[in-house]
Each structure stands twice: as C-alpha cells, then as structure tokens.
Amino acid sequence: MRKYQQLALLLISCFSIGVLLMYKSENNRLKYVLKYVNFFGRSDAAILRRLEKNATKEDLTLPALSKPLPVFQLIGESFHAYSAFWKRNELVARGEAHILVVGKKGAVVDFRCTLIYDGGARSVQGKFRFQRDANESIAEDKSTTFTNYNFYCLVNRDFGKPEYVSLMDTTASLKTQMKLRLRYLKPSNKNTESNLLARLPATICVDLVTYNMSSNNNNLLQFFLYHQALGVEHFLVYNYDQLPEKVISVLERTSMHLYALPFNFPFVQANGTVTRIRQLILTDCLLRNSNYAALTMLLTPNEFFYPSVRIVGDQSQLSFYRQLRHYTTEISRFQMATFSVCIDTNRKLLIDNTHYDPELKPPHKMFFYRLDQQSSQLLALTQAQSVELPLSSAFVHRYVHCQHVGEDGLHDWRNGVREDFMEHINALRNEVDVLI
Fold it and tell me: What molecular function does GO assign, one term (predicted)?
C-alpha cells in the first residue's frame, strides 16, 4: 500500500511540475504581448484598429480625393494637361479654372478657353492666361525637354459651377477643343466640408514616380504602417500601379485609405527632370487636398516624418496639429530638417537605424503644409516663405544605402533628441513591430 502512495505522490509531483512549466511559459508570452499592447490605454485600441479592417470604413470619402482622376491628356500639338481645378472668388462674382500642364520646351503658348456648364447646355468664353512654374530651376533647362505650366481660364461673372474647361491650341494645325473635368477646391456641401475636415486631419501624398522601386516590400509596408501609427489614415499614391500587389493586399486589410492616382508622363524622365516632376506632383497634391485635409505633405517611401507628438491626439494628448497653432495663420508652410540615415540590412525595422551621414545632402527640402488656413491663392503655398521647425518639434529621416561615407564619418541621430521625444519614437517603433 505504501508503494502505491509513493507512486501517486510521484505522479502528482510530475503533473504539478508540468503545470508550473506551462504556466511559466504562458506568463512569459503574456508579458511579451503586454509589452506592446496596453489593454487599458491607447495602444490597444490603436493597434487593434489597424490589425483588422474597420467594419465602418466609409468608401463614400474615396472619390473625394481621387476624382476626377488626373491623367495626361494631349491638348494641341505640344502640351499635355494633367489635372484641372475650379476656384470661385468669394469676394467678387467671378471664378477661375486652374490647369496643370506640361509642354515641349520652347513651344509657343497661345490658347483659347471655354467653361462648360449644365452638362454642355451652356458654354462661356473665358479669358486665358498662363504662368511658367516659378519653382523650376534654370540650371535644369539644358537637360530637360519639357516645361511645367499653370494655365488659367477666368470668367468675371458668377455663372455657377462649371463641369468642364475646354482648351484649344490656336497654333496647332488641327484646331480642336479638348475638355477637362474640373475638380472643385471646395466641396459642394458645407456640412460635408466640415465633416471631411474633422475626418481628415492629415493626408500624405506618396511619390512613386521619382522613387526607385527596387526597395523590398517590407520597407514599403513600414512606410505606410508607421505613418498610420502617427495618425494618418489617407494616402494619395501617385503612380499607384507601381505598388506591388503583395503590399496592397496587406494594406487593404487595415483601416487606411489608399487613393490610386495614375501618372502617365508623356516625356522622357531623366535625372535632371526629377525636380520638375516632383513639383508638378506637389502642386496637384496641394490643390487636391484643399478643404479636404487640414495638413498634408509629399513623401517618397524612404522618407519618414517624425513629429514630437502624434498627428492626431485625444483630449489628454497634445496633437501635432494643435502644436502648430501658436504660429500665425499667415504661415502655411513649415520646413523640417532632413537626415540621411544609413540602412543596416541586419536590422528588421528602418526606424532602428541609428546613424546618419551629415555630408550626404537630401535632393530636396522637406515641407509640411497647413491647409486649414486658406489663402486667396493656394498655389502660393509652394512659393511662400517657410518657417523652419526646430528639431524638438519635428524632423525627417531619409533612409539610404551609404556607400561612400564622408570624411566626418557617421553620427548618431539620437544624440540630438530629447528623452520624451525618444520615448514617443520608441512607442511608435513598437507599434510598427507588432503590425509588421
């Protein structure tokens, strides 16, 4: 009998040890999850919203930023129009169509324009004028075959909202009128406008036109997931067809909105044309987001925006949008310092790369645009004097492969970041780590 009791005690002891080991393993797993997800705080809600597509995701807002689709359309013999916008002057009874155009270098500009109303039932002759894009670099003239233009068609009376603008090249051998559907710079419904402003605190325009798509899919995913963790849910992707299907399939399972914008550029793209192409995309981005988003910026997928706080906050958190309120309403363009951060292929996340080359200068300046304070001429945003934000407020990392390091060597970007700012970046890093 005693032997059976000893055997029973031995079995119970083995079973107890097994249960204890299993409990310890599960407890470690639970601690690992709780490290990234706070079930009693913001992180839990934020991450879970992104892990699974939101059932209340509204497709009604999708056409607001993507329609009408921009596409290069031949007008005359030497010019192509990309997109057209209608802006009504609220102070006087008149309005103006603004068309983004590229033309052959040296071509003569002589057009007639007409605004079309009521589905073609009424046409009004407009006054045509044009401007060469003031942001174009004269140094690029020798290496480019095209010029960026802004065409305008003005009417001095209020005839309502036109649906199309028609352009005819008077220098062409075959004089035909080409119609372009207009996008309104203000939504037709004021309630819709206020709702959209509340729903779209920020958008990001993604430049896949000038970006080298040889990057791996993991880096592309990180770009979208990181900026969504900041609070950006809406991305306007130029040259959307270049986005890999594997990346799209993952992003479509989240709560973010991707707006597919084509870019069938009619001229040869060379190294010297990058600045002009980017400027055209930026102008379309600003006009397209007018009155639909409070903040916007143009990024390539290797550029990450790091503000000191999230773009969207709650009552207990300071948002980046509210942080900008101490600047006067006349300031709508904010420049940020850009660091060329070297990619270490052994690191899983781009955000984990810590060293940058101070001698490797970025190809363009980085700006954030505030669109809630509408000026009389929105295009002036791309030319206005900017305010440079301090490093304590925001900066941009441009992730690159550092093949030739400068004489000054590499520097650790974390040395110039405050402790609370660094904690904020680490929290975003952990969210991306869970999502990726």
Answer: glycosyltransferase activity
pTM for the full predicted model? 0.83
CATH placement of domain 69-181: 2.60.40
CATH of 190-435, one of 3.90.550, 3.40.50, 2.60.40, 3.30.1380: 3.90.550
At 335, is the pLDDT very low, low, confident or very high (cuts 50, 70, 90)?
very high
Per DSSP, helices labelled H in 267-382 are 274-289, 320-323
235-249 pLDDT, tens digit per residue, is 999 999 999 999 999
Rounded to an integer, what distance in angstroms lies between the CA atom of residue 178 and that of residue 86?
17
The domains of the chain are located at 69-181, 190-435
Sequence-distant (≥ 6) Cβ neighbours of residue 190 within 8 angstroms = none
Q: Are strands 257-261 and 146-155 parallel, antiparallel or unpaired?
A: unpaired
Tokens of 356: 């940058």
Q: What is the pLDDT of residues 274-289, one digit of tens each?
A: 899 999 999 999 999 9
> What's the chain's length in residues?
436
